[in-house]
Amino acid sequence: YAGWAARKRAIISSKTHIEVELTDISFYNYPSEEDVMVASFHQRYIADDKLAATHKRQYWRLSDSGRWQILFEGNL
Questions:
Q1: Can you tell me the distance from the alpha carbon of 74 to that of 40, in angstroms, rounded to the nearest whole number?
Q2: Distance between CA atoms of residues 39 and 70, nearest Å
Q3: What is 8-75 written as a DSSP string?
Q4: What integer pLDDT is reported at residue 68 of this predicted model?
Q5: Cα–Cα distance measured from residue 5 to residue 50, given in angstroms and rounded to the nearest whole number
Q6: What predicted TM-score, i.e. pTM, was given to this entire model?
Q7: How high does pLDDT run on average in the chain?
Q8: Which of 41, 55, 62, 70 lies deepest, with the highest CB count within 10 Å?
Q9: Helix, strand, coil fractions of the chain, as percent rounded to 5
């Protein structure tokens, strides 16, 4: 996580404009795991030198502290 976070901070600090738009968002409970939820959405990312549109899926787990945490995120 520390390496990923450092890379993201470096990328973000080099931009003067970042815009992220999420559409077609859906959440549903994972069938066999009570504390797991699946999120699916389209993401549009615009920055100084980049335009990207992807369809993403995330798996979230409810932690012992009562906070939702992302287990996995990937492009579909």
A1: 10
A2: 10
A3: HHHHHHT-S-EEEEEEEEEEEE-TT-TTEEEEEEEEEEEETTEEEEEEEEEEEEE-TTS-EEEEEEEE
A4: 96
A5: 20
A6: 0.79
A7: 94
A8: 41
A9: 15, 60, 25
